[in-house]
Each structure stands twice: as C-alpha cells, then as structure tokens.
Specification:
This protein is about 65% helix and about 5% strand. With about 550 residues, it is mostly helical.
Length: about 550
C-alpha cells in the first residue's frame, strides 16, 4: 500500500469515526432527554426535589449523614433555576424554572457526558472499541432509565470516569493541569455520594494490580533478561517517572497543590459554601458510620442478585463485558484494557458482596462493563477480519445491540412503572397523574387554586410533595382535619376516614375509576375526598 492510499484510508477512517461518534452522542441525548415528564418521580426523586426547592427558594441546604447523599446533585441542579431567576426575575414561574424536566435534565446531561468520555478512550482501546463501548452504554436499558432519574448515581459514574480519563492523560503527558483536574474531579466525586469510597478503592486496587500483573508478565516471558539485570528495576522506573515530571521538588509541590485543591472543593460542598461549617465536614466523615449499618438492614438481597438482574435485562452488556474481561487479562497486551477488566471485576464483586442492593447501584458497573465490552467486540472483529470472516461478528453485534435496544425502548417508554421490570423498583405508578389532575380540578372549582388547604393522612405519600410544591397549605401525615378543600388518605383506612369526614366530604370517583382508588406504588392505594359544598363531582 503506497503513501497516497494510506492517507486516503486514514481520511476515510476519520470520517467514519466522527460520523459514528456524532451519531452516538445525538442518539444518547435523544433517548435521555425525550419526554422527561413521562415517568412519574420515584420516592427518592421526590425527596431530592424538595431539597432542591429549599436550596433554590430559601438558599438553604445542609448535608444530613443519616438519610441522604452528597450535596453536588443539588448545587448542579440549582444552576438552572438560579440562572432563570437572574435572567427573568421572580415572575418566571413560581419556582424559578424548577420543573420535572429541568431537574432530570441535569442527570440526563451527565449521562450523555459520560458517553462522551467513553469516546475519548479511542487511543487506548481502538476506534471500534470506543464506538462499541459508547453504543453499549447508549442503549443499555438500565443506563438510559437511571439517567432519566433525579438521583446521584449518574453524577457519581461521570466523575468516576472523569478521574480515570484525566489521570490517564496525566500519566501520558505529565501536564500539571491534568493532575489538578483529576484532584478536582475526585473531590466532586466524594462530594456526590458516600459510595465514592468504593469507586476510589476499586480504582486504586485495579491500578496497583495492573502494575503487578504487567511486571509478572514481563518476568515470566523473559526470565533470563530479567536475571541479567537489563530490565529496569522498580526504583529505576520511579526515578525515571519523577524526572519526567520535573524532579522530586516539582512533583512534591504539584502533589501538595492537587491535595489542597481536593480538600478545598470537598470542604466547599460539604460545608454548604461555609454556611454549615464545621458541622458539614464532621457529618461528611460521620456518614460512613450510618451507611455501614444501613447497608446490612434494608434492601438486603443475596450476593448473586446482580448477576440475575443483569442476565435478565442487560444480557448483551453482561456477555460482551465478561468476554472483554477474559480477553484483556488473558492477553495482557493492553494495559488499559487490563486495568478496566480489573475495575469491572472489583466493582461488580464489591457491590455483590454488600448485602444492600438496589438497581440504581448497577450503574457503577454498567460503565466499566460497557468499556471492556467494546474492547471485546473490537478484538473479536479484528480476529474474524484476519481470517477474512468479518461478517459473523457484525451479525452477532447487530443481534446483541438489537436485543438491548428493544429492551431499552420497552423499559423506558412503555413498561416504565411495571414491577416485573428489574429497574422498576418500588416505583411510583402512572396513576399519580390522574390524581394530580383531580386535585388541580377541585382546587380550580373551589376558587382557591394553589392556595387550597389539603390534608394527606397517609404516612406514605412521596413523591407528592414535589408535585404539590405549588400548594403551600398541604399537611402530610396528619389526622387533624378542619375545613380542608381536599383530604387524601390510604384506601385501607377508607371506612374510618369516611366515618370521620361524614357528609361534609364526598369521595371522588369517575367512570374510568369507579373504585375511586389511586395506586401510588405497589401496596400503597390512596383515596381522594373533596368538600361536599363544592357541588357534585364532574363525571
């Protein structure tokens, strides 16, 4: 092949790469941003949303180590309503742009950005590997579903990968800015959720194990050379690396600067920008005591649960990822692939061994599984191509990606509140929307609008506080009734509630809902009453 032909092939490859990368990013954005109001908020999203409302409207947020996670989600999400308020004033909606779309836009955007970071790994894994890994993450049913959740995990996963990417750049280039970026991302990672300590621990162990495996492979492949002393010792390698970074003094100064930046950013977030200092810092450390206990008390499942869940809803990702782990460690020729394989094993094993298991924690190993799965697809394709049989892996890829795409579309846009789905975990049912419509209709009929008094006697009511955030006179979990416009109670207490309300209230029923019950989530049925003096209910 002459130079002109090589140049033309390189140009074609670049066009294919850019087109493929752009298509993946566009598809990932569309899947994550389309109709973010479609799925009702989960219980946890409602809690997070109310924290955000207080932060935006009152400027108040304090980290609570017992019940909630890190502060970064709220501060990133607050940027949109704060900017909206700055540009449009207090008349721009009652809550300055605080909508279901805007809060989920934040996590969805981090989901898209994570895929963008996967694409930057092209030089380390290959073009096909980077594109395939990005596709696996783009169409993963659970990754799409949870990226459309207003929870901490999408941010946690993004900053975990950001630490890996910037640390890799620092290793290659030796630029101080890359190390400082790594420190900044690590600080935000720790300020996002307590489980950052798992991510950090797994990454460090994977890094050390990769070096040990590389050294062992070098020794086993050429023991004579190693005995002869021609191969650099560990001390010589450290000296060489130190000199490449400007010497011991420069490296010490840079390390101190990176540590200082890490601590500064973490302190800013956990102290709520010094409005909760030093209590916020103390609570940031105290949290591990609480979450160590929580991890063994609730949502407890067997160690093999994640295997079963993955094989049910993420089989293509699981199979390709497993193949990638085996190929990377067996061949050992690509150190970053070996590192990613160990990262995958460590993350999956750690979360499997912890008794506490929920579907959203799976995002933590979706990421390395997708990256190493992309590596597996490239290795399989290149081997088949060398044998002049490239069609077979392409057909297998189309089949696997097709299965994943179908499952993703069904989960996210059809069965998004079906308990049979792995990722629909004690999720709010779509019944909440007719209930909310009835509440707004009655409030309008009463002539009091959002100023209508409402009492919710049920002790299980989340995420209603988010959806009723425009109603300032709502009592939650109360039984002291006066002259409320509406009363909402648990269906299993319907008869005592009817006896208490008497003729002053009537239960809302309709032709579409003759029983008059609304399913909030599995096992939680609600009934709605309005004051009788508001007239007969509209059928």
């Amino acid at each position: 092949m002459n130079e002109k032909t090589k140049l033309q092939e390189l140009k074609v490859n670049q066009v294919v790469w850019r087109t493929g990368a752009a298509a993946i990013l566009i598809a990932s954005a569309l899947l994550r941003l389309y109709d973010l109001n479609l799925v009702p908020l989960h219980h946890d999203e409602g809690v997070n949303g109310i924290f955000l409302v207080h932060l935006v409207n009152e400027g108040f947020y304090q980290y609570d180590p017992q019940n909630y996670h890190g502060p970064t989600l709220y501060y990133f999400a607050a940027l949109i309503p704060w900017i909206s308020k700055l540009l449009f004033g207090t008349t721009f909606e009652a809550t300055y742009g605080l909508t279901t779309f805007t809060i989920r836009f934040v996590t969805a955007s981090f989901g898209v950005a994570t895929i963008g970071l996967v694409l930057t790994l092209r030089r380390h894994l290959g073009t096909i590997a980077a594109l395939s890994g990005a596709v696996l993450l783009t169409i993963s049913p659970g990754t799409v579903y949870l990226s459309r959740y207003f929870i901490h995990e999408p941010l946690l996963v993004f900053f975990t990968l950001a630490v890996v990417v910037t640390a890799l750049r620092f290793r290659e280039s030796g630029r101080p800015s890359c190390l400082l970026l790594t420190a900044a991302f690590a600080a935000i990672l720790f300020a996002t959720k307590e489980t950052a300590i798992i991510a950090a621990g797994v990454l460090l162990i994977a890094l050390a194990s990769t070096s040990v495996l590389a050294r062992w492979r070098e020794t086993s492949e050429d023991p004579a050379t190693n005995k002869g002393g021609s191969r650099p010792t560990m001390r010589e390698r450290l000296r060489s690396s130190t000199e490449r970074l400007g010497g011991l003094s420069a490296l010490t100064i840079l390390s101190i600067a990176a540590l200082s930046l890490f601590l500064t950013i973490a302190i800013f977030f956990y102290s709520s920008f010094f409005t909760n200092y030093p209590k916020g810092l103390y609570d940031a450390l105290k949290t591990f005591e609480f979450w160590t206990k929580t991890g063994t008390r609730i949502h407890v499942n067997p160690w093999w649960t994640y295997f079963a869940w993955m094989l049910k809803d993420e089989a293509p990702l699981m199979l390709l990822g497993t193949a990638g782990v085996v190929l990377a460690i067996w061949r050992g020729s690509n150190r970053f692939a070996v590192f990613t394989a160990l990262w995958t094993i460590g993350t999956f094993a750690t979360y499997s061994l912890i008794p506490y298991k929920t579907p959203w924690l799976m995002l933590n190993f979706h990421l390395p599984l997708a990256i190493i799965g992309g590596y597996a697809f490239e290795e399989i394709y290149q081997q088949a191509r060398a044998r002049k049989q490239p069609l077979a892996p392409l057909l297998i890829g189309v089949l696997m990606f097709g299965v994943s795409s179908y499952q993703m579309l069904m989960l996210n846009f059809v069965n998004y509140d079906d308990d049979q789905e792995v990722y629909v975990y004690v999720h709010t049912r779509r019944d909440i929307f007719p209930l909310l419509a009835e509440i707004d209709s009655i409030a309008k009929r009463a002539g009091t609008g959002t100023q209508s008094p409402i009492t919710i006697t049920s002790l299980d009511y989340w995420p209603l506080p988010w959806y009723l955030r425009h109603y300032p006179f709502v009592q939650y979990g109360k039984t002291n009734l006066f002259n409320e416009t509406m009363v909402i109670g648990p269906a299993n207490q319907q008869l005592p509630l009817l006896a208490s309300l008497g003729s002053r209230y009537q239960q809302i029923r309709s032709g579409l809902n003759p029983a008059g019950t609304y399913t909030l989530r599995p096992g939680v049925e609600l009934v709605l009453f309005m004051r009788s003096d508001l007239g007969p209910q509209v059928p």
